[in-house]
Amino acid sequence: MIRFDLDYKIIDMHTHMGQQYPLYYPEHDADSMVRFMDEAGVELIISCPCEDLFTPGMKRRQIIDAMTKYPGRIKGYYGVSPLSQINLNDIKAAFVSNKGFAGIKVLPDYHRTALTSAVYAPVFEFADEYKLLVLSHTWDVSMNGESCNSADKVVEILEKYKNMTFIMGHSIQGQADLAIEIAKSYHNSYLDTCDTCRLNGLIEKIVDRVGAQRLVFGTDFPMQGTYHQLGAVLGARITDKDRKMILRDNALRIMTQPGRP
């Protein structure tokens, strides 16, 4: 029997604050996002401002203010862009001074820079040294016809950096079977649900092949709605224990692992 009433709160590991051209969504600031979270039964999100990913530093104050105003409800990813100078001292200082930062976010496809590019190496070395969480957009072939964060690139990174925790955002859409094999082979890698609800049966396949403990809940909220991705998990033919691991327990385990500057 599928239960749609939960006696626990949800943790969303893949969200974005602020607006992104040319999309419109009303819940784009911290206050409106938290109001929606209350409605949807979401306790905590980890978020990276959209504008910060495309104009580094432009909106970092936005996530810092949000984490300060809503501790326990909003944590942040430090957005890194290879299109601007990457300063490790700035990244380290941000983690030291803001305990709400939970990890680093990279967006290789959108920046048209391969995950394996040398420009990312100092960031991954930093993350590996301090056992940080890294969320990367992963996909097979992008709209540009490139493969900047495909399965082969992910494997190359995981072979080199075994101490950081690496979340495959979108579970490498177009190569989901390979993403599952990666999660089976590399203990520090996780799949995420973000935008996978369009793939019928994928959640069941992940749970069957690698186990629910290797899948975290992510939505791209508020760019994409929470409810349709939540429905994919609640409607999946898996156990209630599996659902709770996906929707909450795995995130708690990742966030309580030691590792930050």
> Which consecutive residue ranges, at least 5 long each, have pLDDT under 50?
none
The percent of residues in helical segments reads 25-40%
CATH-level-2 architecture: Alpha-Beta Barrel
Widest β-sheet, arrangement of strands: 1-2-3-4-5-6-7-8
Under CATH at level 1, the class stands as Alpha Beta
Strand content: 15-25%
Number of helices: 11
Q: How many domains would you count in the coordinates? A: 1
Q: Give the SSE string.
A: EHEHHEHEHHEHEHEHEHH
What's the pLDDT, averaged over the residues? 92
Report the CATH superfamily. Answer: Metal-dependent hydrolases
Query: Globular, elongated, flat, extended or rod-shaped: what is the shape?
Result: globular
Instruction: Could you tell me the CATH topology label.
Output: TIM Barrel
Structural class: alpha/beta
Distance between the termini: 45 Å
Give a short account of the largest sheet. Answer: 8 strands, parallel
Number of strands: 8
How would you characterize this protein structure?
- With 261 residues, this protein is of the alpha/beta class.
- It has one domain (10-256): TIM Barrel (Alpha-Beta Barrel).
- 39% of the residues lie in helices and 18% in strands.
- It has 11 helices and 8 strands.
- It has helices at 30-40, 50-54, 60-69, 88-97, 108-111, 121-129, 151-160, 176-185, 202-209, 226-234, 240-256, and strands at 10-15, 42-47, 74-79, 101-106, 133-139, 165-173, 189-192, 215-216.
- The chain has an 8-stranded parallel beta sheet with strand order 1-2-3-4-5-6-7-8, with helices on both faces.
